[in-house]
Write a structure and sequence with these properties.
Layout lengths: L1 H7 L3 H8 L2 H34 L5 H13 L2 H11 L3 H9 L7 H25 L4 H7 L5 H12 L1 H16 L3 H6 L10 H10 L3 H13 L1
Helix pairs in contact: 1-13, 2-13, 3-7, 3-10, 4-7, 7-10, 8-9, 12-13
Length: about 220
């Protein structure tokens, strides 16, 4: 319904004019790169953490489980403000001075997207591992495989559909991220502008046709 409604108010001429803009083309490329990077990072964290939460019982497990819900339930602007404050602390300032700048730069876009999308990926991987019978690992370990070998050779191949789902969900969630990016990375054209902030920038200058064209692309994706 959203796609049909957007298309009804957007002509292909509007879409073509929007994509002739250097700013919007740059936003498309940055969106594709940052969403892919944040989705890869999300899965890289989600696989071991989801497995840990699914297979083991340890002190603090409930606290970690609770913390995963924080980025999901907090208002997006609060997430962005929290990231901004985090990188103004002594460790954050040291990191930006000695490693690379994060705040209001391209890395801030990836971090802001990762902060929310990782929680969805972890949830997905935990459910995936919950649905895999742990006895298959026990059978693999019986001939002498270590737990790590059983995980890589048996459990992870069985979880491949869940990994793909976690990646896709994290990628899509990162594409729609707006509040944390606006606060933590800004919306500087040709630098930190992504598709979600392009809609905001076009609307702020009254360019409704370009905003609808970018919205159509995001809904279609």
């Amino acid at each position: 319904a959203l796609l049909v409604a957007d298309l009804a108010h957007t002509s292909f001429g509007d879409i073509a004019r929007a994509f002739r803009s250097r700013e919007i083309r740059a936003a498309v490329w940055l969106s594709l790169l940052s969403c892919t990077a944040s989705a890869i990072l999300s899965v890289w964290v989600a696989v071991p953490l989801g497995y840990l939460l699914s297979r083991t019982r340890f002190y603090g497990r409930e606290a970690i489980d609770l913390l995963l819900d924080v980025p999901i339930v907090l208002p997006p602007l609060v997430v962005g403000l929290s990231l901004l404050v985090l990188f103004q602390t002594a460790p954050g300032v040291w990191f930006q001075r000695n490693v690379f700048t994060v705040t209001y730069a391209v890395p801030a876009v990836v971090v802001a997207q990762f902060a929310v999308s990782a929680a969805f990926a972890v949830r997905t991987m935990r459910v995936t591992f919950d649905q895999i019978d742990p006895r298959t690992e026990d059978v693999a370990r019986a001939p002498g495989c270590s737990r790590a070998q059983a995980f890589w050779r048996v459990t992870l191949p069985e979880a491949r559909r869940g990994v793909l789902t976690a990646f896709t969900l994290a990628w899509a969630r990162a594409l729609g991220e707006f509040g944390p990016i606006l606060v933590f990375a800004g919306a500087t054209r040709m630098r930190t502008e992504v598709l979600s902030t392009s809609v905001f920038l076009e609307l702020s200058v009254g360019n409704l046709e370009a905003a609808l064209a970018v919205s159509f692309l995001m809904i279609a994706v």
